[in-house]
Specification:
The chain is mostly helical. It is built from five helices and no strands. The chain has a single domain, classed as Four Helix Bundle (Hemerythrin (Met), subunit A) (Up-down Bundle), CATH 1.20.120.30. The chain is elongated, with a radius of gyration of 14 Å. The two termini are 14 Å apart.
Length: 109
């Protein structure tokens, strides 16, 4: 299940990246309404809410969505360099989120 959530966020990031490269405007989702946000608020919190790694994922996930939204806004304003900075940070956070989620999945075993 966590692999599917990670893949969904990778597709989300790819959609924003396509926009950055001149493609269609992506549908942005609030962090509470995407698959990871729902998992974090429900099943994930019940299983892992006591772990520091889980709390870090919650924080990083909110920032991830904020960064992608900022990148889209900056791109629309013609601020390409600033938009790219936000995307670079979003990619970095995505990697950290993925790492933490896989660690949580391993702790389940």
């Amino acid at each position: 299940m966590l692999e599917a959530i990670v893949l969904a966020h990778l597709r989300y990031l790819e959609n924003v990246e396509r926009f950055m490269e001149g493609g269609p405007e992506p549908a942005l989702t609030p962090p509470t309404e995407c698959s990871l946000g729902r998992w974090l608020a429900g099943e994930g919190r019940g299983a892992y809410g006591h772990l520091p790694a889980f709390q870090e994922v919650v924080s990083l996930h909110e920032r991830f969505h904020g960064l992608t939204a900022e990148a889209v806004s900056l791109k629309q304003e013609g601020k390409e360099a600033e938009a790219r900075e936000r995307m670079n940070e979003a990619y970095r956070l995505f990697g950290r989120i993925e790492h933490l989620l896989l660690r949580l999945d391993e702790e389940r075993l």
